[in-house]
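REQUEST FORM: STRUCTURE PREDICTION
Request ID: SP-0412
Submitted by: Lab K.M.
Chain count: 1
Length (residues): 67
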Amino acid sequence: MEIDVRGLSCPEPVLIVMDAMEDYPGEKLTVVSDAAHTRDNIVKLAETEGRKAAVTEAGKVYRIVIE
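STATUS: Completed
RESULT:
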């Protein structure tokens, strides 16, 4: 599942990802963000929930894959 949080202000992106992790437990999620602080907060959230997060960057777009 891909979640696009570009243009959203914190804490909204984190809340959206939290809901998705609850609704789709164990599923791989790909989050697309355009803000470094959002990227960092989503990675921290994933780690707090015991999941792994990998980040790739293309220009000013971050793709966070949560497994």
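NOTES: The chain has a mean pLDDT of 96.
Reviewed by: T.R.
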